[in-house]
Amino acid sequence: MLSAKRNRWSIFFYGFLFWTFWTLIYSIALFVGSDIPTFFIAFITSMQTNYLFALLSILIWYTCKHIPFGKFHIIILSLIHFLIAIVLVTFWLVVIYGSWYFMFGKMFFHHFNVRMTLGWQFTFGLLNYFLVAGIYYTMIYYQNFREKELAETNLKVLSRDAELKALKLQLNPHFLFNSLNSVNALITENASLARKMIAKLAEFFRMTLDIHDHQFVSLQDELWYAEAYREIEEIRFGDRMQYEEEVDASLLTKSVPSMLLQPLLENAIKHGIANRLDGGLIQLVIKSHGPNIVIEVTNPINKDNRMVVEKLMTNGTGLSNLKKRLDQLYRENYQLDIDLSQTDLFRVRVQIPVAMES
Fold this sequence. Notes:
Blueprint: H1 2-33, H2 39-66, H3 74-104, H4 106-110, H5 114-167, H6 175-189, H7 191-210, E1 216-218, H8 219-237, E2 241-247, E3 255-257, H9 261-273, E4 280-289, E5 292-300, H10 306-315, H11 317-330, E6 335-339, E7 345-353
Parallel strand pairs: 2-4
Antiparallel strand pairs: 1-3, 4-5, 5-7, 6-7
Helix pairs in contact: 1-2, 2-5, 3-5, 5-11, 6-7, 6-8, 7-8, 8-9
């Protein structure tokens, strides 16, 4: 809050300096280009003229905000501003001369050559408009640049947080505990399967470390990482967990956010398969839809605890963390939808723009 107040006072201070400097320049031009007898009178007149323009420049600020640079071709943008400048400068001059006439009457115009002065004042006003608009566009660009920097910083923090959670078994703190318990049980029952599970755990953590510094990975790499996680769970759940995968091969080289699939699969396993005695089928579908990649994960849920599952899966840590990351990565250019239209199925659908090849 203090920083915001300090920024507002800084803008006010530098704005005041700018208009005072511009008032001085205008005073010189007014004194040289008119019949005003003294520089002091020219300066007072300039103050009235320019501080009124400073007030009107608030309208220029809103114009620049609502017509951002890059929205139109530079020629069209220049034409729009030129037309707005003509209207604004005309209004400015009408107010100025009207106030002078109101204060001094016709006598003022006997000592002031309106015809000689009005032309360069109009030109000066247009120059003023485009100078102020240029400053405002620079400020807006800088503000957007700072917001982008802040968003990228927040993204790095969220990404690092997600990576650390992955090292602690991502969004399921019981994953390692359950896996080690499964290994312990398998040692006496099936030593080879226990060794396989240990190897898969090692592979999973190695891959987690490999993508530690990568914000995006290829879809192929993301599928390998998700597969390492899924195979561990398949060993733990055995025949209770079935899995089907349908992936558009043309998307394998496209970039997607790292650790995008793992929390989706974990939610499906934790809140779907694990809660059913007979387990069920998890389906992963990845396809293209126009300029977007669509990822769908479907899993069964028990009808009797549907409300509990719905609350956990829509408000749980996994999807919440994923949504925050997608917000930072894509702003509003993505969709994350929950489909509960079927009583015994839960579907999560993520749609993101197709990125360049990784």
